[in-house]
Write a structure and sequence with these properties.
Elements lengths: L5 H6 L3 H10 L10 H10 L3 E4 L4 E6 L2 E6 L8 H14 L5
Antiparallel strand pairs: 1-2, 2-3
């Protein structure tokens, strides 16, 4: 699968997902994003989610795989997860 162009990715996101996308790529990194919003963004961009043991989850987007642990008991992604999400999107060829 070849990377989607920015125009194409913008077409597949709703307004909430676009805001999450912009927040992920904003500096300084915001650690107050709810993890579920990041997951929703990945799925809207065409990622395939695989549930793993416990709170682990994997996503594959444009042949790039990333493994994450869902935050618990808090819902906030925290800065290091947002940085990892940004890195995953960049590796998958999706940038603002």
């Amino acid at each position: 699968m070849k990377p989607r162009a920015l125009l194409e990715t913008g077409d597949c996101m709703n307004s909430k997902q676009k805001k999450t996308f912009e927040t992920i790529f904003t500096d300084p990194v915001n650690g107050n994003i709810e993890w579920r919003k990041i997951e929703a963004l990945f799925l809207a961009l065409g990622a395939v989610r695989t549930e793993r043991e416990g709170s682990a989850v994997s996503f594959v987007l444009n042949d790039v795989r990333a493994d994450f642990h869902r935050p618990h008991p808090d819902r906030a992604a925290l800065r290091y997860r947002v940085k990892d999400a940004r890195s995953f999107l960049k590796k998958a060829g999706i940038t603002p």
